[in-house]
Amino acid sequence: MTAEELKKLALDYHAGERPGKISVNSTKPCSAADELSLAYTPGVAQPCLAIKEDGQNVWKYTTRGNMVAVVSDGTAVLGLGNIGPEAGLPVMEGKAVLFKHFADIDAVPLCLGKVFNENGKTDAEKLIRAVECLEPTFGGINLEDIASPACFTVERELKKRMNIPVFHDDQHGTAIISLAAILNGLKVIGKKIEDCRFVVNGAGAAGLACSRFYLTGGAKLENMILCDINGVLHTGRSDLSEEQKLFAKDTPMRTLAEAMKGADIFLGFSAPNCVTADMVKSMNRDAIVFAMANPTPEIFPDVALAAGAALAGTGRSDYPNQINNVLGFPGVFRGALDVRAKDINEEMKLAASEALAELVSMEIPEKVKEQLKKAYPADAAKGMFDGAAGIRLDMVIPKPFDPRVVPHVARKVAEAAIRTGVAQLTIDDFDAYEAEVAARLEKR
After folding, report:
1. Is residue 95 annotated as part of the catalytic site, yes or no?
2. What is the DSSP string of 8-71?
3. Has residue 276 got a pLDDT over 80?
4. I want to staple 330 with a disulfide (CB 3.0 to 4.6 A). Which of 103, 112, 147, 213 is the partner?
5. pLDDT digits (tens, 9 = 90+) for 303-334
6. Which of 390, 221, 204, 195 is nearest to 288 (CA)?
7. How far, rounded to the nearest angstrom, does the alpha carbon of residue 398 sit from its chain's CA centroid?
8. Which residues have CB under 8 Å from 274's CB, separation 6+?
């Protein structure tokens, strides 16, 4: 498909008879006078009064417990940059579609304007004040496409000020999925994460958050080199943000090419085609290369593999090992909402990674195999879903359309929320809960 053909198809898809991708549907009947009197006046006064008497009744009588706000100011839209809130709205609508399709969570896109300073960048305090006012309506907040460094302040302060989960998916979604892929890849290769030397290219929101999360997963800070557009983050630089300073090294290395020599794992959150085959050849044996710039990665998987990498992945769906955020946020929020968590903490995120890693080794039921073969005919033709389950270098993470993903991630996230004391509800039988989520999603 040519670029022009894709452009036409995408614009036609978003226009159509009804512009956009989402709508609001009633969950209760309202087709007769008595139903109208229950949906609105006078009947609606009764749940209002019940909530006024006991605020916890809001979860019983409204949609709040299954409602997430997808909030953005459009300052860092994937692959497009600072395009503003109006231009970012199609992305946020798309995120709402994914919430509903994959996790049966109702999501409302909220693209906020007038939250900028005089140079057009995010004014963190303005955005924080706007978002914290949303708490009475939503069960969770998904922050999206907010530029760094403001995004770090926005998420950190909102987590302090709000009693519902606040999750910046650009930071944590890719971190959860990529760590799962790393953990499984290292099992096949036979290396330990604490022994591996990491090189991360891209020191913005995603690169920094992922690097911090790899430390949670067992990586060592002394084994991690980060690079940005100006090269290696080193202690001699005066242009580093507070978040970047954590990773600054006292090192003579200055370029990405120098940093990659002898590295075990490369992760890209940066720019297209900035990694060469020679750079991959200079890495340690059995190297892992996850080049996640979209739509054009830092290096294409086939080039990386030909240069000697043992394992490669991208954010694209047309190559194996797709590092796709849709593997993470639907299940994370499903689990968090179902136990009415006040936060999404590190333990819950790590549980999501471990859940994704586990799934790859679990036997695939025949019914699931048929669904996977239908969703991924090219992979099915290669026999990817046949034979015994297990981690392979061309499948270290599950596929997004594997129906087991959200129920299993939700289960592990809910378990972690209860274990760490941020849940307000409990679950007595997690096997039953996982089965209930699976049945719910099958019906949608």
Report:
1. yes
2. HHHHHHHHSSSSSS-----SS--SSHHHHHHHSTTTTHHHHHHHHH-GGGHHHHSSGGGEEEEE
3. yes
4. 103
5. 999 999 999 999 998 899 999 999 999 999 99
6. 195
7. 14
8. 201, 256, 268, 298, 299
Considering all CA atoms of the chain, what is the largest pairwise distance in Å, rounded to the nearest integer?
77
Q: What confidence tens digit (pLDDT) does each residue in 200-230 have? A: 999 999 999 999 999 999 999 999 999 999 9
The number of residues in the chain equals: 444
Question: Which of helix, strand or coil describes residue 213?
Answer: helix
Contacts of 432 by beta carbon, 8 Å cutoff, 6+ apart:
none
Q: How far apart are CA 438 and CA 436, in angstroms?
A: 5
Is 369 tagged catalytic? no
Q: What are phi and psi of 308, to 5 degrees?
A: 120, -5
On whether the CB atoms of residues 67 and 106 are closer than 8 A, the answer is yes
Which class for 189: exposed (0-12), middle (13-18), buried (19 or more C-beta within 10 A)?
Answer: middle
**Would you state the structure tokens that stand for residue 25, as one six-digit string?**
């549907």
Instruction: Choose, from 95, 342, 349, 412, the residue flagged as catalytic.
Output: 95
The model's confidence at residue 444, banded by pLDDT at 50, 70 and 90, is confident
Q: Residue 255 corresponds to which amino acid?
A: T
Kindly tell me the sign of the dihedral angle through the C-alpha atoms of 225, 231, 235, 241.
negative
pTM over 0.90: yes
Give me the catalytic one of 7, 40, 245, 367: 40
Burial of 228 (0-12, 13-18, 19+ CB in 10 A): buried
Based on its alpha-carbon atoms, the radius of gyration of the chain, rounded to whole angstroms, reads 23
